[in-house]
Amino acid sequence: MKISENWNINNLTMRKAKIDDIKDLNSICTSWEDKILLEGDVFPKGYIENCINNGDLPPIKGADISNYYLMIIQKTDGEIIGFFDLYHGYPNNETTWISIFLIDKAVQGNSYGKEVVESICQECKNSGWKSIGLGVHLKNWKGLRFWTSNGFDRIIGVWGDKEYSETTFSIIGLKKELL
């Protein structure tokens, strides 16, 4: 069960990231101005390069880059407006996991995110996956609203610090069944 490395929806293309995309993807990472406030840290140095070269693999035995996809969201005019990743087979063999989904701040609010999530769900369903899971930091209210409004409404866990403060962080795991 593998997704396509390239698919189109309306005026957007989803395609596997290449080394040539690093500059644009780093720029999109920089556009997330409140990441440190919501997640407690900036992107690690070389994050995009590491994702392309080694994958952002889940903490499971046997995790392999062949199950990892860093995907570009690109307009038909060639402008890269976002990216996401998928890992096939985490946290179970019927689920694909999204560990990052980011739309450039300059184009947010144009329904690109909703459109892309719908296409990811359809692509995964067509490839035989039963569900998609992801984690959202609990302080990321915008992200929580976005994902729950897109059908990620089953809670699969909460992980992180036990006490709430400005310097503590927790993640809620959400899942969407692909019926």
TrEMBL record:
InterPro entries: Acyl_CoA_acyltransferase, GNAT_dom. PROSITE patterns: GNAT (PS51186). GO terms for molecular function: acyltransferase activity, transferring groups other than amino-acyl groups. This is N-acetyltransferase domain-containing protein. Residues 12-179 form the N-acetyltransferase domain. It comes from the Bacteria. It comes from Clostridium sulfidigenes.
